[in-house]
Design goal:
Layout (H helix, E strand, L loop, with lengths): L4 H10 L4 H11 L6 E4 L1 H16 L11 E5 L27 H8 L3 E6 L33 H8 L5 E6 L5 H6 L3 E4 L19 E6 L2 H11 L15 E5 L9 H16 L3 E5 L2 H13 L2 H16 L6 H8 L8 H22 L4 E5 L8 H6 L1 H20 L4 E5 L7 E5 L5 H12 L2
Parallel strand pairs: 2-3, 2-4, 7-8, 7-9
Antiparallel strand pairs: 1-3, 4-6, 5-6, 5-10, 9-11, 10-11
Helix pairs in contact: 2-3, 7-15, 9-12, 10-11
Length: 438
């Protein structure tokens, strides 16, 4: 398959392959299983024929024209059931229309291969799903794929899609990107509409691309955010980068620390400024969550309590437990409001203090991906791994800005996370491209 979107676009221009031919090739390879919950072959072929017709007329909509992609199964696509990893929701009626996200991709000429499996209701960073199956990491199929955008990550990494769409509430794009050695971009909170997307936390849910390259992520991000087509241009400049000395390295695996240090050496060799500082606001944020409860816990309970109580036996028991146990906590609606107000104040204060840095660097996940079997067999191992997987990524969901995970070394399930202030997607992708080039 093609290495990236630009390479495929050149092949289309040279007429060495057509969108219809390529789409047929993908459809011949993919099947319903642990990676894809459904295949949307009829729509894919219709989109491929439309893209090909436009090419033949000399009309090019942009870089996504004729690009076969996978879509996480919480994004509405017209005439398809959106299950969000749940066999209960899989009984719902098909969507009557595309979500804004899907509509923008369709208008840009993308081809929808199908909808990818995920953690039920997106409420875990591990990627396990007892209903539709768990796809193993592309690096080692015995290892977890990361979640909740598990199928999207595996589809891209195993050449079952050129790119994919995921969602990120606490790390659900970046964790599977790290564990499958691909690129995953969590976008600025509120930048991309989440209408027609099954919610987990309406305060934190974001949509983002999962791709083979940083430049591919840029092209898809531009479409998702309804921005004009623009080349990914790198300007030679010196970046000022901050490495936290607290929290993000706790319980780190040796291989992850070595990969992180290798990434830092690349930046230093290129003349970029690296500063190390303790960030007390990280501790302050987690203290707020301990005091008031997490936004996802408050909001998921409000959204799903009745459905879970009526169909408890049909849900992943670990997901149901995490949501419903919050019902019996002493949290109140005033706790939710206090957390919301305090978070808003913290976000403003944080970026005022650290906004002089182009980005903050950390390991995407401090641990290597555990084995699927280990987590399936042990609740203790499951919940411990889930907490460690989400710890670093979740910080920047609460801090609202973009964050990208980029592979540090080829074919290793280790990601470098590059995070910045809201609306600095270009900056984090530029910095990520410096690692990708090595």
């Amino acid at each position: 398959m093609f290495k990236n979107i630009n390479e495929l676009a050149k092949a289309y221009k040279a007429k060495s392959i057509s969108p219809v031919e390529l789409t047929k090739s993908y459809l011949d390879q993919i099947e319903v299983g642990s990676t894809y919950r459904i295949i949307t072959a009829q729509r894919a072929m219709a989109q491929a024929k439309q893209a090909e017709s436009l090419f033949n007329k000399g009309i090019v909509l942009g870089p996504l024209q004729g690009i076969p992609i996978a879509i996480k199964d919480l994004v509405d696509t017209k005439a398809d059931v959106t299950a969000a990893g749940s066999k209960v929701l899989a009984n719902n009626s098909p969507a009557l229309e595309d979500s804004p996200v899907a509509a923008r991709l369709d208008a840009a000429g993308a081809i929808f291969l199908g909808k990818t499996n995920m953690t039920e209701l997106a409420f875990s960073g591990l990627g396990l799903n007892p209903h539709f199956g768990t796809p193993g990491s592309a690096v080692d199929s015995s290892l977890i794929p990361g979640g909740s955008s598990a199928g999207s990550g595996v589809a891209v990494a195993t050449d079952l899609a050129m790119a994919a769409i995921g969602s990120d509430t606490g790390g659900s794009v970046r964790i599977p990107a790290a564990f499958n050695a691909i690129v995953g971009l969590k976008t600025t909170n509120g930048l991309i509409p989440t209408d027609g997307v099954v919610p987990l936390s309406t305060s934190l849910d974001t949509i983002g691309p999962m791709t083979k390259t940083v430049e591919d992520a840029w092209h898809i991000y531009r479409v998702l955010a309804a921005k004009s087509v623009k080349d990914f241009e790198l300007k030679a400049r010196q970046f000022k980068l901050l490495v936290p000395t607290n929290m993000v390295f706790n319980n780190i695996d040796t291989a992850v620390k070595e990969a992180f240090d290798f990434a830092i050496s690349i930046f230093e060799a290129a003349g970029h400024v690296i500063e190390y500082k303790e960030i007390p606001e990280f501790v302050e944020l987690y203290d707020l969550l301990n005091e008031y409860g997490g936004l996802a816990s408050h909001e998921a309970l409000a959204i799903y309590e009745d459905l879970l109580m009526a169909n408890y036996q049909d849900f992943d028991p670990r997901v149901a437990k995490r949501i419903l146990e919050f019902k019996n906590s002493p949290r109140t609606s005033s706790d939710y409001l206090r957390l919301s107000y305090k978070r808003k104040e913290l976000v403003g204060r944080f970026w005022q203090k650290y906004g002089s840095y182009n980005a903050i660097l950390s390991p995407t996940v401090a641990i290597m991906p555990p084995k699927i079997k280990t987590l399936e067999e042990s609740d203790e191992a499951y919940f411990k791994a889930n907490g460690l997987c989400l710890r670093n990524t979740m910080l920047f969901n609460y801090l609202s800005g973009p964050a990208v995970s980029v592979p540090v070394k080829a074919a290793m399930p280790i990601g470098l996370m590059i995070a910045a202030a809201p609306y600095q997607e270009k900056a984090v992708l530029e910095i990520a491209s410096l690692i990708e080039a090595n």
